[in-house]
Every structure is written in C-alpha cells, then in structure tokens.
Amino acid sequence: MELEQLKPEQLERASNMLKAIAHPMRMAILSYLEDGRRLTVTEIYEKLKIEQSTTSHHLGIMKDKGVLSSQREGKNTYYFLRHEQLSNIVECISKCTC
Questions:
Q1: Could you give the 3-state DSSP secondary structure of residue 71?
Q2: To bridge 67 with a disulfide, which of 1, 35, 48, 62 should be the other Cys (CB 3.0-4.6 Å)?
Q3: pLDDT in tens, the chain (98 residues)
C-alpha cells in the first residue's frame, strides 16, 4: 500500500505510533521485543537498568498508541510488539545512524 492510499485516520494512527516510539528508552524496549520475544516489566527494567515505574510508564505509552500488546499469565504480564513489522523501524534507524 502506498502512502497516498492511506486514509487520514490511518495516517493519524501511524503518526501517533511513531511519536510513541520516538524516545531512546522506548526504542530500546522495542529492540528487546524483536523476533516475537515477550518480556515482563521486571525483565525489561532489569535490562534497561532503570526504575520499574519508569519502565511501566514507557510501556503504557506504547501500549496506548498501539505499538505494544500485553497478555497476563498468572502473576506476570508479558509485553510484545503488536505488529512484528515494527522491528523494521529499529533496524532502519540503526542502519541510518551508523
């Protein structure tokens, strides 16, 4: 699908998703969730070496904007990419910044 074929509401959603991703910590979170990986808040904040509350804040923003989904399993909530193609954005940016 070409960009000009997208409806205004689709462009708005895409723009909101890109805004949600446009933060260094959120991009790092996306990179940890590539290849279908699913992680808990605890696993993510330990990898990022930041506070749990900060991690939850970033996850909430990305979930609200349709970047991430979550699934509760017992005591844990696992986060994962809602659309696996979003990992292409991280790959593209890493190539463009070299």
A1: strand
A2: 62
A3: 676 788 889 888 888 888 999 999 999 999 999 889 999 999 999 999 999 999 999 999 999 999 999 999 999 999 999 988 887 877 787 788 77
Could you count the other beta carbons within 10 Å of the beta carbon of residue 43? 16
Domain ranges of the chain: 9-96
Displacement of CA 27 from its chain's centroid (Å): 7
* Residues 87, 12: Cα–Cα separation, whole Å: 20
Distance separating alpha carbons of residues 11 and 1, to the nearest angstrom: 12
Report how far residue 8's alpha carbon sits from residue 76's, in angstroms, rounded to the nearest whole number.
Answer: 37
**Apex CA 39: angle with CA 36 and CA 40, to 5°?**
155
Whether residue 68 contacts residue 59, with contact meaning beta carbons closer than 8 Å, is answered with: yes
